[in-house]
Amino acid sequence: MEITATATICAVRPHGEAGAVVRAMTADHGLLAGYVQGARGRHLRPVLIPGNVIKGEWRARILGQLPSLTAEPEHSRAHLLGEPLAVSAMDWVTALTAATLAEGVPFPRLHSALDGVLSAIELAPAARRWAGSVARYEELLLSELGYGDEMPKNGDTPVAMMAQNRARLVEHVLGERRADVMAARERLVERLKKAIE
After folding, report:
1. Helix (H, G, I), strand (E, B) or coil at 102
2. Which Pfam families would you find in this protein's record (predicted)?
3. 147 close to 173: Cβ distance less than 8 angstroms
4. Residues 52/9, Cβ–Cβ less than 8 Å
5. C-alpha gyration radius of the chain
6. DSSP string, 13-69
7. What is the DSSP string of 121-160?
């Protein structure tokens, strides 16, 4: 296996002394995992932040083996790390993506939407401008996975839309992984309530 693609970092899990297993979303191959040697070193740590865009090269000698991943920075959102609300939103959408999507299955609409939501978080001056995008991303993900029968009303606030999505995310999509992933969502919702309501 050998794949070269632009990808958005969704999850980074430490592995071994200095490495990490990185999961990133690509347009043509969906979510891909790879082992990055030296991921926790001073050169790669700022590159491998959830929400950043990399040019990745995945290589595996044997089918079914975890590929090695070489990551080159393409677009960094590290400048947002000092903004707790923006970081909470990036953590939530990337964690949701990593926890729910099967690896190697392309979801082009979700890939585009994830990039759009992360760009909105990065560029909008206030949460009021991007909070609705986060709620709509949840809706799109539920829809792409076959659970999109209940659409929010146009007049709903982003926090109300996210409240409607919560039960379906927990029941249908996250299952046993809900405690870890939903903690990121709860932080975001609490911060959004303070910021926009």
Report:
1. coil
2. RecO_N
3. yes
4. yes
5. 17
6. EEETTTEEEEEEEETTTEEEEEEETTTTSTTTTTTS-TT-EEEEEEE-SSTTSPPEE
7. HHH-SSHHHHHHHHHHHHHHHHHHTT----PPPTT--HHH
Q: Confirm if 165 and 157 have CB atoms less than 8 A apart.
A: no
Q: Averaged in consecutive runs of 10 residues, what is the pLDDT profile of the chain (197 residues)?
A: 95 92 97 94 93 97 91 95 92 94 95 96 88 91 81 65 79 69 84 79
pTM of the model: 0.87
Cα–Cα nearest to 105, from 72, 141, 71: 141
Dig out the tokens for 167 from the structure: 């039960």
The distance of Cα 121 from the centroid of its chain, to the nearest Å, equals 13
Instruction: Let me know: does 141 contact 97? Beta carbons within 8 Å.
Output: yes
| One-letter amino acid for residue 158 of the chain | P
- The structural domains of the chain, ordered by start, are 2-76 (2.40.50.140), 79-196 (1.20.1440)
What tokens were used for 4? 């070269």
Q: Give pLDDT, residue 177.
A: 60
Asked if 33 and 82 count as a contact pair (C-beta separation under 8 A), the reply is no
d(CA 122, CA 119): 5
Reduce the DSSP state of residue 94 to 3 states and report it. Answer: helix
Q: What is the pLDDT of residue 184?
A: 84
State the angle between helix axes of 178-196 and 84-100 in degrees (0 to 180), rounded to the nearest 10: 150
